Amino acid sequence: MYKLHKYKNQAVTIKYSADVKRVGAEGELRWQVNNADYPAIGTKILDAEPDVWHSMSGEWTGVLTDDYPVFYMSSWENNSDKTTYYIDKFVIDVIDMKDE
Predict the structure, then answer these.
(1) Contact status, residue 71 vs residue 4, Cβ threshold 8 Å
(2) What dihedral angle (degrees, nearest 10) is formed by the CA atoms of 26, 75, 19, 17?
(3) Consecutive H or E run containing 70
């Protein structure tokens, strides 16, 4: 989880890249921002093969309206309690649009 509190009520662009591996079960990989509509950032991977590194990246521009905005890997599916997630080479860039 990456905290975005200092950008609350501001327009930002979030760019990220990461390698992600699931161990334990096949399932979806998705990065999100907890915001009004919980947007998925970048392309989600459905039925991501377990024990394999998956390269993920994406970009989103919007206003962070949630009280506690964070960027995170979503794990809402039924088998998430049997799954361990590994994240490597995580890079995030948050651009405050008022500084552009």
Answers:
(1) yes
(2) 140
(3) strand 70-74
Second-level CATH architecture of 2-99: Sandwich (2.60)
Q: For residue 50, give the DSSP letter.
A: T
φ and ψ at 89, to 5 degrees?
Answer: 55, 40
Q: What is the pLDDT of residues 41-68, one digit of tens each?
A: 998 888 888 899 999 999 999 999 999 9
- Look at residue 71 and tell me whether its pLDDT is greater than 80: yes
Residue ranges covered by each domain of the chain: 2-99
**Cα–Cα distance measured from residue 77 to residue 29, given in angstroms and rounded to the nearest whole number:** 10
d(CA 65, CA 37): 10
